Amino acid sequence: SVPLAFFSGIGTASRRGILFKGGASLEALAEIKAAALDKTGTITRGTFTVTVIEPAANRNADQLLALAACCEQNSTHPIAASIAAAASERGVALKIPHEVEEIAGYGVRAVVDDSTVLCGNRKLMEQNGVSLPELPAAGGATVVYVACGGQFAGRLLIADTVKDDAKQAIAEMKRLGVTAAMLTGDSAESADAIAAQTGIDAVYAHLLPEHKLERLREIRDKYGPVLFVGDGINDAPVLAGADVGAAMGSGADAAIEAADVVFLTGELSAVPQAVALAKQTARVSK
Ligand code: ADP
Ligand code: MG
């Protein structure tokens, strides 16, 4: 049975926008030693902006953007939204794509004007045998590569920003004895830049959705009970596999459903607040 103090703890938490689905998760949260945080939408705002459009030699910027936006028009990924916004801002006309297929953790494949167009990360290009030219470093931006008919057509650099309270929230977690780790499908370059800005201790990049659970188990073996915080559809299995699974209120329905705790404000500082409250409640109940 759940001690009475936990009901009071749940009430206090809910007034701060932290929703616990039961007393057991509050109790479990008091014991966590590590927090594994998804990068996009959890540590960062998850609102991307296209900052650089870099067409290959045989194309111009509008053509490249049109190809990318055409593929992405039905995707709900935050990257897709930024590409659609850039295309509409520049008044680029979009063709109708066929056989659109979104590949989680990679990007999108579609047929446009009888050519296969790929729009996604380096892994997507490698998987499809598209050779990439030497390109300058992207300086922490997320890179979206575009290929048409098997040939590199250019790349878009997309910037996301760290949440305002992220650095302070990570420092608070450490003060509470919780090691902060980042799990992301993005590149190591981009992940390391975000880790440096926020003081995150451990970075696991280039992860496919199914590999996040393996890394979570590694983190648990190394540090002890682990909290996972995510926001995406792909995060549901990881949420279920963590000692405590938490979702950002701004996240996908599947993530919110699979979570034990929901942070309605979407602020990262809700994580240390919840941990502090859980520890306090556990002390009172003893
Ligand atoms: P995260 O782990 O940061 O939440 P995801 O698992 O959603 O990221 O995606 C991992 C990577 O896969 C992205 O950083 C991006 O490179 C690529 N990707 C996924 N979906 C798309 C898409 N619709 N368009 C372009 N790239 C995508
Ligand atoms: Mg995500």
From TrEMBL:
Coiled coil: none
Superkingdom, taxonomy of origin: Bacteria
Subcellular location, record wording: Cell membrane; Membrane
Family stated for the protein in its record: Belongs to the cation transport ATPase (P-type) (TC 3.A.3) family. Type IB subfamily.
Descriptive protein name: Cd(2+)-exporting ATPase
Lineage: Bacteria, Bacillati, Bacillota, Clostridia, Eubacteriales
Span within the parent record: 538 to 823 of 872
